[in-house]
Design brief:
The complex is a heterodimer.
Chain A (H helix, E strand, L loop, with lengths): L4 E3 L2 E4 L5 E6 L6 E7 L6 E7 L2 E5 L7 E4 L6 E5 L8 E8 L1 E2 L2 E2 L3 E2 L3 E5 L1
Parallel strand pairs in A: 2-13
Antiparallel strand pairs in A: 1-3, 3-8, 4-5, 4-9, 5-6, 7-8, 9-12, 9-13, 10-11
Chain B lengths: L2 E3 L4 E5 L4 E3 L2 E3 L5 E8 L6 E7 L7 E2 L2 E6 L4 E6 L8 E9 L6 E2 L3 E6 L1
Parallel strand pairs in B: 2-12
Antiparallel strand pairs in B: 1-4, 3-9, 5-6, 5-10, 7-8, 8-9, 10-11, 10-12
The chains are: A mainly beta, B mainly beta.
Chain lengths: 116, 114
Amino acid sequence: DTGVSQNPRHKITKRGQNVTFRCDPISEHNRLYWYRQTLGQGPEFLTYFQNEAQLEKSRLLSDRFSAERPKGSFSTLEIQRTEQGDSAMYLCASSHKDIGSNQPQHFGDGTRLSIL
Amino acid sequence: AQTVTQSQPEMSVQEAETVTLSCTYDTSESDYYLFWYKQPPSRQMILVIRQEAYKQQNATENRFSVNFQKAAKSFSLKISDSQLGDAAMYFCALDTSGTYKYIFGTGTRLKVLA
């Protein structure tokens, strides 16, 4: 169990640029989640995948945000035309779908995005 | 709508003493899970303890235990014999069955004094 891995750890970019983050879940986990965490707040749910299918998207996820999980392994989160308000920590988590039980989510270190 | 409230932005405890962090929640679901996660500075969030709503017995994990009051919708975390390594942000989270997305509180920063 190598844990959930996120890259990059930090991303600084100018307003209007596009950015992409990557998340590698724990290998046997078939569920993957993205959250956003701003300073002084708890994480807020953005979207989640079961295998390669994106099953739910939050209203927080505007048209500028897109997430993919090709082949049900790693996932990418892309933000187009970044805005100041996008500055946050983006957290990825994964869990294993288990019949009759909600397995807890395991979180990565996050990617901190700063918009200049 | 589901909500999670942590009313203590910051708490302090002397090393080796006991501290209780508060969490209240609201949901209309009867089947749900509650979690406490710990987030050390610049480090990943890790699970401290979980509680299934259908279980009346309070969960315990070594020095960590919860006081789950379902009728009052309260879920507090007790840390016994506090250690310097317990210093972190603690988040309470709610997972209602079928959604699999966590609703987090705003967190409580715990300081442990030597």
